[in-house]
Design brief:
With 302 residues, the chain is an alpha/beta fold. It folds into two domains: 179 residues, 3-Layer(aba) Sandwich (D-Maltodextrin-Binding Protein, domain 2); 109 residues, Periplasmic binding protein-like II (D-Maltodextrin-Binding Protein, domain 2). Helix content is 43%, strand content 19%. It contains twelve helices and eleven strands. Helix 2 links the parallel strand 1 and strand 2. It holds the Pfam family Phosphonate-bd. Keywords: Signal. InterPro entries: PhnD.
Length: 302
């Protein structure tokens, strides 16, 4: 039997001890942001750079960034003091909180009428509903992606009355199960007929269309996963062994940052806002992880 809560408690205690041990009192001269796998473009790089320059003015130190090649890599970087801030999805946040001592500062809020996730297939596919997915090839975005894997999987189980084994073992419900390594890669996998279906964030679809990577008629949406209002946008999280002054400065910066170009680039929606969140806002997602019988290790094992 999986012991997610026990593992969470023990790992949190260990992270706390390591954080205290790691506080050397030396003044930090660089603040590093790890960007998670997402749709990449020149426009996004431009607004990210402006965001970093604005944060530099607040912190009084150099702000640099790099593109992590996976959710796990970003979490490991934060755990080893190689990254200071990252925008995690809800599920990757709860793993980062446990494994790396990540502390939630601000979350993304957008139009809650938009779905959390969508199931997409090629526009000329004969797939029209979830029932048609039996025997097909699926491409999930990433093992710890909220909208690209875990919530769609939970939705499949609930909607079709499937067992966890049926949606996780190849040859049971799906012919094959794949992880694309990012939302944009999952979308491309569908348009290139690598996957019969993929689960992705609708915001990524909008951004890829806007940037000319795909066209609206390259794919069709066969099902939408309803959003959870609080916490569904994930969280900007900072390493918890930073000083309270630094945490507060970064938090205040995020909550007052109102560059419309940057905010729209996060989700593809002009209604995007950054709002205050706390760790308890992600308890619902911890419950989902528990219901899927997922330990923290399994969230990162794929």
């Amino acid at each position: 039997m999986k012991t997610y809560k026990k593992s969470l408690l023990l790992s949190s205690m260990l992270v706390g001890a390591l954080a205290l041990a790691g506080c050397s009192g030396e003044k930090q001269d660089e603040f590093i942001i790890a960007y998670l796998p997402q749709e990449n473009s020149e426009q996004k790089a431009k607004v990210d750079k402006a965001f970093e320059e604005d944060l530099e003015k607040i912190l009084g130190m150099e702000v640099s960034s790099y593109q992590a090649n996976s959710y796990n890599a970003a979490i490991e970087a934060m755990k080893n003091d190689k990254a200071d801030l990252a925008l995690f999805g809800a599920f990757s946040y709860i793993v980062a909180s446990e494994r790396a001592g990540a502390e939630a500062l601000a979350g993304i809020k957008t139009d809650t009428s938009l779905p959390m996730s969508v199931f997409i297939t090629a526009s000329d596919s004969d797939i029209e509903s979830l029932e048609d997915l039996k025997g097909k090839t699926i491409g999930f975005a990433d093992p710890v992606s909220t909208s690209g894997h875990l919530m769609p999987k939970s939705y499949l189980i609930e909607s079709l009355g499937l067992t966890l084994e049926e949606v996780e073992k190849e040859g049971k419900f799906f012919k094959s199960i794949n992880f694309a390594g990012g939302h944009d890669k999952a979308v491309i996998g569908v348009t290139n007929k690598q996957y019969d279906v993929a689960t992705v964030s609708p915001g990524v679809l909008k951004m890829m269309e806007k940037n000319g990577v795909i066209k609206k008629d390259d794919y069709k949406i066969i099902e939408e996963v309803p959003t959870i209002e609080v916490g569904s946008g994930g969280a900007y999280a900072i390493r918890d062994n930073h000083s309270e002054e630094t945490k507060n400065d970064v938090k205040e910066f995020l909550l007052t940052y109102d560059d419309p170009t940057y905010l729209e680039a996060l989700t593809g929606s002009k209604d995007t806002k950054l709002v205050e969140v706390q760790d308890s806002d992600f308890d619902k997602f911890r419950e989902v992880a528990e219901s899927l019988n997922l330990s923290p290790e399994e969230l990162l094992a794929h």
